[in-house]
């Protein structure tokens, strides 16, 4: 991760950043010297969002940098500048309160993200000057950027280097940094340990399926369990995807990446919780051992599931994980998954859809999402749609008998495997930026992660 911040005194005078909105540009220019007004006019700067202009000082150096303010909140207010400016040290407005500067610093730091595992990037990274911060504030800033960068790195890594064993190794590395414990149930042991659906989905691959189980914290503290879909590549199985549909399926382990990023934030912050992270890591491959449409699968919860479509495999993996999560009656279960295209139709690719039967939890997530500029939207668990999952030969079907409401019926399917008691929320996320925006490059992305952590922190931090 690049060092995007200067938090101590710097030998060079930081260059002021001047955020401007289009309607306020004229008033600002009235107070500037003639040379500045001429420069801005000649450059065609209109303070549009994402527009950045460096203005020379009287000696020919950079005197200040003008930034068109983003309408997407404080987090992204300076992100365009971080992505366009060259090497140097820049300072946010002095009249901004500390909380606003820190929020903008998150977006600045995320603009410095580079996925350089396969191709080095030598583009200079400008630094944001943030003097006078408390150690805890510096720590939190770096941790937030690092957690999102971890999620991006895991998702961006191609499947050949991010198969179930690699995902397990990444979990071990994270656990080692925070004194967490990790166990893995691999291959045929999944059947002996009663994870039949995870085994059935992943058994066709040359890469053995596995349950990855991370545990951290004091058992006397409230239990929080995170569940992640870790389909390291999804061919669609025998109901094979099209070439276009398969192209970016390295991202289908995005749910697992999210819970690891969230776990990193929880452990680094030292939240007083007993954390459990459960990941079902599989490849949905095609071979003579692949599961088939019409097969009936058993699950850890004892429910039988008829396979309507082998490309609806993620919910089968999550079924075993959610059943396991509920056995210890945690206070909260959060699951993340790249589960349905229907959620993308409903809210687009840049909003995290979520489902919960707990209205107070939903309102808490809305408040958290607004506070950290991490958009989330609740979709309904409309109980009558459960009829669309009925099967004539099993307890339920993994696909609905309708082309409509696919994200809802997927959520209702998962709900069947969550016992009464824990507060449960299911995130259905894209985990991928389909276009570049300041601070959010095209590629793997954490969605709903910062909102979820902000909610958890508000609930559990002493």
Task: Please describe what this structure looks like.
The chain is of the alpha/beta class. It folds into 2 domains: 129 residues, Leucine Aminopeptidase, subunit E, domain 1, CATH 3.40.220.10; 318 residues, Zn peptidases (Aminopeptidase, 3-Layer(aba) Sandwich). It contains 15 helices and 19 strands. The strands form 4 sheets. Strands 7-8-10-9-13-17-14-15 form an 8-stranded mixed sheet, sandwiched between helices. Strands 1-6-5-2-4-3 form a 6-stranded mixed sheet, with helices on both faces. A 3-stranded mixed sheet has the order 11-12-16. The radius of gyration is 24 Å and the shape is elongated. It starts with a strand and ends with a helix.
